[in-house]
């Protein structure tokens, strides 16, 4: 089974500051994708951002960006200018090329302090 | 309304009973999935389906049965519920193709007593 590591069970950040959530994964595949999801306390799963292993540039979506380091097998999520509404669980999920089975890490709980 | 809907939102059942969780999507997405979420485990894939009448096991399929006679529906059945199946269950769908996100339902919180 694919191993996904989110080393930070909990993170705290001050409002308006940037924060980086770590994700590393164990794969021998050259072709794969990497998804990040947000789960607020209300429970829904919200798609944030996607990075393909062959994408030349790091993915960005508004305040979210990925620090993708293919050789290190890491895809860290960077949230700029944190807002109180960013407080949530964040899940990293790699997807093997040619597969549709999305596998999730155990998540990082982010708390944004005012 | 367009989207992916799960029912019921909450369910309490007794050990040994059969229970079915429903999932319906209006996009005609090819792929549908069932995950369970437990503290300390994140989301784990139970079963998935690539199309009507095509299903396959995920990480934790034991104790569960799925069917997909129509593209839009993907019910999950617990044939004889056990306390270890107390969890939050999420259904998801995806159209397929690189970069397309998986869209999740709101979840069903199942308690087996």
What does this structure look like?
- The complex is a heterodimer of chains A (114) and B (113).
- With 114 residues, chain A is an all-beta fold.
- Chain A has strands spanning 3-5, 10-14, 19-21, 24-26, 32-39, 46-52, 60-61, 64-69, 74-79, 88-96, 108-113.
- In chain A, the strands form 3 sheets. In chain A, strands 2-11-10-5-6 form a 5-stranded mixed beta sheet, with no helix packed on it. A 4-stranded antiparallel beta sheet of chain A has the order 3-9-8-7, with no helix packed on it. Chain A has a two-stranded antiparallel sheet with strand order 1-4.
- Chain A starts with a strand and ends with a strand.
- The mean pLDDT of chain A is 92.
- Chain B has 113 residues and is an all-beta fold.
- In chain B, strands 2, 4, 5, 6, 9, 10 and 11 form a 7-stranded mixed beta sheet that branches. In chain B, strands 1-3-8-7 form a 4-stranded antiparallel beta sheet, with no helix packed on it.
- The termini of chain B are far apart.
- The model of chain B has no long low-confidence stretch (mean pLDDT 93).
- The chains are: A mainly beta (114), B mainly beta (113).
- The A-B interface holds A 1, 33, 35, 43-45, 47, 50, 52, 91, 100-107 and B 31, 33, 35, 40-45, 48, 50, 58-59, 88, 90, 92, 94, 96, 98-99, 101-104, 106-107.
